[in-house]
Structure formats: structure tokens, C-alpha cells
Here is the input.
Amino acid sequence: MPSPDRPRHARRGGPGPFAAGAAAVVLAAGGVWLVRDGADGSGGPPMPPAPSGRAAVSAAPAASPSSTPTPAPVPAARPMRASAPTRIRIPAIAVDAPVVGVGLTATRTLASPPVDQRNLAGWYRDGAAPGAAGNALVVGHADTRSGPAVFYRLGLLRPGDTVEVTRKDRRTAVFTVDSVRVFPKKDFPDALVYGGTDRAELRVITCGGRFDRRTGYESNTVLFAHLTSVR
Here is the structure.
């Protein structure tokens, strides 16, 4: 059984518990964690771009094969004091979006950004703040009823790309991408994505893989990054 500080992913076909502090709570029903299964289930949206060379994996994150050399690892910066995020920018895929805190609904499921707001990200406010020690969780939709949403192109990122998170303390935490992976929801690696760390790390999560009109997206795309500088 995972320790209380490690979330567990909701598997396809049923809810899964999320450990927040000492209490286990249900995050989602129907096999979706944090983000919708896509549009509204009435059609088949274009499949979000997947990381080059790998459509679905279940092992530890690693750089995807490519024709360009993998950049050398960037040393980690010291964790910052906690401060809520206000904006996320990912220059390589033209993301520039406000961030809102998300928590638990009355039915003890974790809220996600409103599906009608395409350019909005959600931060799990009961977890680590971006830049502070631990894994900060940021989520957003891959698409909406009207088209691609904030993290539709997340799978195009490569090791060495940067993610900038502006915080309420007016400082910016700059993360360097370690990898972007796609995990089938039925085999989601909870400990790998949510496990504790002494470093300041970031996980950005959205839907991915193929879309089924009945069950939604089959996978989640997850970005792994660590804090490398502060402005």
C-alpha cells in the first residue's frame, strides 16, 4: 500500500484513491485522473501529439530516441519557499496560461479546470508548490469541445526544454524538462509520478493516446521536470 503522500491513479473503469496527507480520497470516476477524457464523448478529437518514438510506456522516464543528441543534465537548483503559482509558460509549445488552484469537490473528487476554458491550467493546491521541495502537480485539458486546449502539444516537448512558473511571491521557478512520457491509464505508475522527492520537481499531466467515444482517452501524457533556476 503506498504511503500517505503518494497519490494513486484512478484506473480505467473505476475510481481510485488519492492519499492527501493522512486521508485517502477518491479523485475521479470512470478511469480519469484530474483531467477529462476529452471533448464531450460525442466525437473523436485528433489524437494529441505523442513523444517521439514512444506512444505508451510503463517504465521510468527517459529521453525519447531522436536524431539530435540528448542535452547534458542540468543541475538542480535549491528548492524555494512555498508560494502558489499564478501562471505557466512553456516557450517551446507556445503555452502561456493562468494557473488556478484545484482541490476536492463535494463528492471528494479532485476538480479540474473548467472544460470551457481552453487556456487554463490547474495546480493541486494541497500538494507541493512549484519550486518548493516535492512534486508539484499541474494539470490541464488536451482538448475541449471547440478544439485543442492548453496542453494539447505537451508531447512535443523534449529534454532540455524549459517550463516557467510565475508565483504569487513574484518569483519565477524555471524547470528543465527531463522527459515526457505517455502511460496507459490501466498501468499508470503512481509511485513514479507522485512519489516523494527532496528536489523541487514538476509534473504536468494531460490526456493522451487514442480516443474512444465510449471510454475517452486511453492514456495520460506526463511531463517530468526539475527546478534549475529562479528569477
